[in-house]
Amino acid sequence: MAKEYDISEAFREVEEYLIESMIRNMRNHRMTEDDEGLDYAQWQAVQLKNLNEYRRDNEELLGEYFDTINDKIGDAIERANEIGQMDQEVKILEAVRDGYKLPDMEDVASGLSGEFFEINEDRVNAIVKSATDDMERAEYAMLRRADDQYRKIIFDTGAAYSTGALTYDQAVDMATKKFLQSGIDCIEYKDGRRVNIQSYAEMALRTNATRSYLAGEAATRDEWGINTVITNKRGVACPKCTPWLGRVFYDDVYSSLPVPDEKYPRLSSAIAGGFLHPNCKDTYTTFFEGINSEPDPPSEEEQKKAEEQYALEQEQKRNERQKQKYDRMAKNSLDADNQAQYQARADDWAGRDKTFKEEHGNVLEERKQAEMVPGLEEPKVPELKINKIKSSTEANKINAEIPEGYVKAGISFLNKKDNLYEYASKIPELKNYTSVACHTLDGKTFVLDMAGNNNKEDFFPLTIEKMSELIKNSKSYRGGKVRLISCSAGKGENSLAQQLANCMGVKVMAPTETLVVNDLGECFISDNDFLVDLWYDEFDKEKRGKIKQTGYWKTFNPE
User: Pairing with 16, which of 244, 305, 413, 481 sits 20 to 30 Å away (CA)?
Assistant: First the structure.
């Protein structure tokens, strides 16, 4: 069964994907230095090209996904309205059973316009449109913010590295530090506070669903001629709403009935004073005069308790935010020392969060449950289908644990579950060459197949510099020329083999097209699937030898 996320979790996944894709590009395309100094211009050109591809790929990948999320939000808002109408119908009938006398229906009808029954539908449509329009703007802001930060990181990295005081990894970490601390904080409120789209989406869904629910309740009350409401006193309120709780109001916000007199204040006055603010967990219900108990505003002790509970919620939020911040920095920093430092801080905040919850419980989850529309299931969206990028921390660990085998007098960076691991070991050695077996992704990037199942989601990319380092540090490499047992590594003008030759300063031989190896260690080079199948299925060695290859082994000299 496909994995599903709630709305806020889905946006968290999107944010992680955008950040990790950005950091991967910075990690995989490093600035190099030769006798003439840093090749900054070429590095910058590559990074700006990556930025354009990053923008294009994100628009293609996320466009439909955002549409799916927005549709789910709209459906939830409409469902909340239906629940509000049904719940209110039950409450009114229960009140009538308990002795509540309904208003004269002729008087009610005289107070309603002919368009009454269209009013609720129009109101819900307006809430849905407002919510989805806001989310579309927020989603655009998210992608734009990521683009802007990526461009800034490129220039800041170049400036920091060109000083000569920092390694490339340290320069990238310095350029990305502030960005990783805050994440993609693309939403700015009137007070200047910035939040990420995950927090905004959670607030927007909950707030608009509550408004739709209240509109549904009001529509049913209008049908029965009731427009008095009482603000609920339940559990612990937030300090901003406490002064308005336990009071009766005329609903002049969602109700279509006219306010009959000044016996009770208007609901709009409470909302103007802060009641029902965004993310508010407090609400109101119908007041049936003579049936409900008399209003009972919160006592000083209850207000104090509300403030204490609010302080606990803020403390838990801080613990979780700090843990997420340092997790993000540890995961996406390149320098090993920085990774260790940030991971230690993340672990410290995780410990604080655990201790807090053991003492006080999960107060934020309790608040979330209180804020939800009763009976409304939180909408779910399918998992975003992306190629999950391994973090820098994982990269260092993986590179330290790469299994090394022998390709005759050679080196293997293949998973033992991979058939090629065994077949490549039977390839005859080539005099004066060290054979290196490693997969590529379309002949453009060296990759490790972490699961050995040829699934791109399990591929881990290796930079040319890292590949060079791994070969040079291998106990099987004694210097000299290299032969790559890697598909299409010799294809094109700036092939992987040419780049590796430049980086290592040695001759590199590689196939120009797809390399196929059978269980005898024989090799066939061709991108033609028909010829490959014909060669692979032919049992007669002499006949196999007569099948023409469309590719060949090509040697590259360092430039």
Answer: 413
Site of tokens 């999950």: 388
pTM: 0.65
Domain assignments of the chain as residue spans, ordered by start = 4-293, 402-556
Could you please report the per-residue DSSP string of 458-525? GEEEE-HHHHHHHHHH-TT--SSEEEEE-TTTT-STT-HHHHHHHHHTS-EEEESS-EEE-TTS-EEE
Give pLDDT tens digits along the chain (559 positions): 345 668 888 888 899 889 988 888 887 676 655 444 456 777 788 788 888 888 888 888 888 889 999 999 999 999 999 999 999 888 888 888 888 887 765 554 454 444 545 667 888 889 999 999 999 999 999 999 999 999 999 999 988 888 888 888 899 999 999 999 999 988 888 888 888 888 888 888 888 888 899 999 999 998 888 889 998 765 556 677 878 888 899 999 998 888 888 999 999 999 998 888 877 777 888 999 888 776 677 777 877 887 888 889 889 999 999 999 999 999 999 888 999 999 999 999 999 999 999 999 998 887 777 666 777 887 888 877 654 444 444 444 444 444 444 454 468 788 777 777 788 888 888 888 888 888 888 888 888 877 777 777 777 888 888 888 888 877 777 778 899 998 899 998 889 999 999 988 889 999 999 898 888 888 889 888 888 888 878 778 888 888 888 889 899 998 8
CA distance 79 to 70: 14
CA distance 123 to 106: 25
Exposed, middle or buried, 113 (CB in 10 Å: 0-12/13-18/19+)? exposed
